[in-house]
């Protein structure tokens, strides 16, 4: 558990150690027999075996062997945790205590690292693992702390310590600004709150706390909707009714067919070239045009920033820019609200802008969400070309590279894989491979009654939703996160009594 937060070598060593212990511990024959009766373990093992078989129709064996090595937890965990020795309840608790301690420590290190290095992009605050994987671990730790808190008397020292831990982790999740994690948090939080109000044993304090978390999420979602509504509310007049000349007499240019906006103002309205360049040169040493009048990248930033303030791109507009506005433009800031609002506003606004920009037929380069649209479309094209058995274990990246070359829809540096685990499995092994994985993923709800516990269902929601916009099983941390907790929660539990969903 600790290695998941801090060290890939520790993850590898731990997986090997669990496997060796399973082999050398007395009673291996009984465990082997138990494995043959464990339908969930067999389904996940069959899914890993499919990766081995998938080499047969692959051409890139180096990629295939790397993929098999990364996904070894899908082989080790169903065996070592699915049929290994049963820990005592107190031992299970200590496992989760270490998990919570690692989560809080990782959060503290990330904050110190980000602030000390003056990192403006919160995605760079996680020094050890991907910020997305860290957000998933943080969400799980948040709910683990709440579940354990319920096992103590309300307002006791232990209860307070766990509640504070949960709130620290929740706060860190929003500091990290990982949208993928927040998306996974929403349904899990709704499910948790539903259970608290359904339960007769949940305290009023826990109900209010749960309701508070959901309320914060609802406020944030409502705020995001408000930002979107304001973005699409047009504040300009029709270009036919607009003034045609600036105060210095230059004719305005209107790209009337260009709908790009900033805060409701059209970016390509009220454009002047010579007047803007002449007056900008009085405020900044950075030029807008080359000597032969070719536009430089800074010009687009100037257009967007001035539009965000409702200013015309002329002498009057430039005169209304403060020195801090000019400095912000020179540093690449495209909207004055980015200086006044928090990171949540900036992230939501940037996402809305990139989607709007993409919907107009512009490229997806540089936009994390719109790039995913391209990844998903490209993955679907690969699926349609290989519907029966997929491209095989080793040719996933090769198939994407070839399809990107064919479609020409992304720059080389942005050409990544599907960012959707279900699509990745489908294009790799065909629909049969996807069906096999889904049988193993959903199977516990039919084959193992411990899947009906609160902790397991929360983990299932978090991991399942993460696979909608991430290739969760394609990285060492991601696949270990899935395989370890999938089987540990099924066979070892969380160390406290839980209310059953079925009850």
What does this structure look like?
The protein folds into three domains: 2-197 and 443-491, no CATH class; 239-340, no CATH class; 371-430. It is 64% helix and 1% strand. It has helices at 2-6, 8-24, 28-37, 39-53, 61-70, 73-80, 89-116, 131-149, 157-176, 179-198, 204-232, 274-280, 297-308, 315-319, 323-330, 337-340, 343-359, 368-385, 396-407, 421-442, 444-447, 454-469, 476-491; strands spanning 261-262, 265-266.
The residue-averaged pLDDT reads 89
Distinct helical segment count: 23
Poorly predicted residue ranges: none
Could you estimate the helical fraction of the residues in percent?
A: 55-70%
Helix-strand makeup class = mainly alpha
Topology, number of strands: 2
- How many independent structural domains? 3
Give the neighbour order of strands across the main sheet: 1-2
Strand content: under 5%
Radius of gyration: 27 Å
Largest sheet: 2 strands, antiparallel
SSE order in H/E notation?
HHHHHHHHHHHEEHHHHHHHHHHHH
| Shape, principal axes of CA atoms | globular
Distance between the termini: 30 Å
Task: Give the SSE map.
Elements: H1 2-6, H2 8-24, H3 28-37, H4 39-53, H5 61-70, H6 73-80, H7 89-116, H8 131-149, H9 157-176, H10 179-198, H11 204-232, E1 261-262, E2 265-266, H12 274-280, H13 297-308, H14 315-319, H15 323-330, H16 337-340, H17 343-359, H18 368-385, H19 396-407, H20 421-442, H21 444-447, H22 454-469, H23 476-491
Antiparallel strand pairs: 1-2
């Amino acid at each position: 558990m600790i290695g998941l937060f801090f060290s890939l070598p520790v993850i590898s060593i731990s997986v090997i150690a669990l496997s060796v212990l399973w082999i050398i511990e007395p009673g291996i024959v009984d465990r082997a027999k138990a494995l043959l009766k464990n339908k969930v373990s067999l389904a996940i093992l069959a899914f890993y075996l499919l990766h081995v078989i998938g080499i047969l129709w692959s051409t890139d064996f180096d990629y295939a062997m790397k993929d098999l090595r990364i996904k070894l937890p899908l082989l080790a965990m169903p065996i070592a945790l699915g049929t290994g020795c049963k820990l005592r309840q107190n031992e299970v608790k200590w496992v989760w205590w270490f998990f919570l301690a690692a989560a809080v420590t990782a959060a503290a290190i990330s904050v110190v690292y980000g602030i000390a290095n003056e990192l403006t992009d919160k995605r760079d605050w996680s020094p050890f693992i991907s910020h997305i994987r860290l957000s998933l671990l943080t969400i799980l730790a948040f709910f683990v702390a709440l579940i354990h808190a319920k096992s103590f008397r309300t307002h006791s020292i232990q209860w307070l310590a766990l509640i504070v831990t949960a709130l620290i982790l929740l706060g860190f999740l929003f500091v990290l600004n990982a949208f993928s994690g927040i998306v996974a948090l929403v349904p899990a939080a709704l499910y948790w709150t539903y259970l608290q109000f359904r339960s007769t044993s949940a305290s009023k304090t826990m109900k209010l706390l749960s309701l508070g978390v959901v309320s914060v999420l609802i406020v944030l979602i409502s705020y995001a909707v408000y930002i979107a509504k304001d973005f699409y509310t047009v504040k300009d007049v029709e270009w036919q009714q607009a003034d045609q000349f600036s105060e210095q007499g230059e004719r305005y240019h209107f790209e009337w067919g260009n709908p790009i906006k900033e805060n409701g103002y059209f970016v390509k309205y009220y454009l002047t070239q010579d007047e803007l360049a002449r007056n900008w040169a009085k405020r900044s040493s950075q030029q807008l045009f080359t000597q032969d009048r070719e536009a430089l990248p800074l010009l687009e930033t100037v257009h967007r920033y001035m539009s965000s303030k409702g200013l015309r791109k002329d002498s009057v507009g430039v005169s209304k820019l403060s020195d801090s506005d000019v400095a912000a433009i020179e540093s690449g800031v495209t909207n004055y609200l980015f200086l006044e609002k928090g990171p949540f506003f900036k992230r939501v606004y940037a996402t809305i802008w990139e989607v709007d920009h993409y919907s107009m037929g512009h490229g997806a380069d540089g936009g994390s969400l719109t790039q995913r649209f391209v990844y998903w479309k490209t993955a679907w094209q690969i699926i349609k070309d290989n519907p029966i058995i997929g491209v095989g274990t080793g040719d996933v990246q090769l198939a994407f590279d070839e399809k990107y070359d064919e479609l020409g829809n992304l720059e080389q540096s942005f050409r990544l894989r599907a960012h959707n685990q279900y699509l990745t499995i489908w294009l790799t092994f065909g629909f049969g491979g996807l069906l096999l994985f889904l049988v193993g993923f959903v199977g516990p709800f039919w084959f193992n009654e411990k899947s009906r516990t609160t902790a397991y269902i929360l983990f299932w929601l978090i991991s399942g939703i993460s696979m909608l916009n991430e290739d969760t099983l394609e990285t060492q941390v991601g696949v270990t996160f899935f395989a370890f907790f999938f089987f540990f929660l099924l066979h070892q539990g969380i160390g406290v009594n839980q209310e059953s969903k079925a009850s």
